[in-house]
Design goal:
single chain, mainly beta, four-stranded antiparallel beta sheet, elongated, binds zinc ion
């Protein structure tokens, strides 16, 4: 896990957070980074089977609002 990050834009303190998706029935999920090119499936949107995937952590600068994304924990998809 990345803990202390300085903003590369203004040097301010970056606060840890995440971006979520609203899925079916307002079920909220953290976004996931998936390795490779997106390949569309008629039935399920984009294919994710057997792909390398990580949860996306988003850090927000408390001074200028800049967002930076990091991936540390492998995700089950
Ligand atoms: Zn900043």
């Amino acid at each position: 896990m990345v803990t202390e990050i300085e903003c590369s834009n203004c040097g301010g303190k970056m606060l840890r957070g995440f971006i979520f998706d609203r899925g079916h029935y307002e079920h909220k999920e953290q976004q996931v980074w998936v390795e490779g090119e997106p390949e569309r499936s008629f039935w399920s949107g984009v294919k994710t089977r057997d792909r390398n995937a990580f949860s996306v952590d988003a850090y927000r600068c408390s001074d200028c609002g800049r967002l930076e994304f990091y991936t540390t924990e492998q995700a089950d998809i």
